Amino acid sequence: MKPTGLIILLVFVSILMNAEAGPISAAICSACCAGGVVACYSAAGFVFGTVTAGAGTPAVIIGCNTAFGKCMAACAVAGVAPAP
Fold it and tell me: Signal peptide span per the entry (predicted)?
């Protein structure tokens, strides 16, 4: 094997060993946000995914959606943040 090929292989293996847990953290965070919005909808007597946003949407559903959006925005930050 050529020395350059060995160097490239070692660099590639070292990159693989330094993986971060950011995407895993983001996935867990997103699942928690989804669970929260489903619970919010259930507490209001609705089913998540069946209400369309319009003029007649109840205020509690707008609140659930706002909280869900803020939670998912925080998860986006968790996706790019390095975790040990």
Answer: 1-21
Residue with tokens 């590639």: 12
3-state SS track over the chain: CCHHHHHHHHHHHHHHHCCCCHHHHHHHHHHHHHHHHHHHHHHHCCCCCCCCCCCCCCHHHHHHHHHHHHHHHHHHHHHHCCCC
Determine the Cα–Cα distance for residues 74 and 44; give it in Å rounded to an integer: 24
Tell me the per-residue pLDDT of 10-23, one tens digit each, with 9 for 90 and over: 666 555 555 556 77
Contact (Cβ atoms closer than 8 angstroms) between residue 51 and residue 61 = yes
How far, in whole angstroms, is CA 72 from its chain's centroid?
6
The label of the residue with tokens 């090929």 reads: 5
Nearest to 69 by CA among 19, 33, 20, 41: 33
Q: Provide CB contacts within 8 A for 76, sequence distance 6+.
A: 26
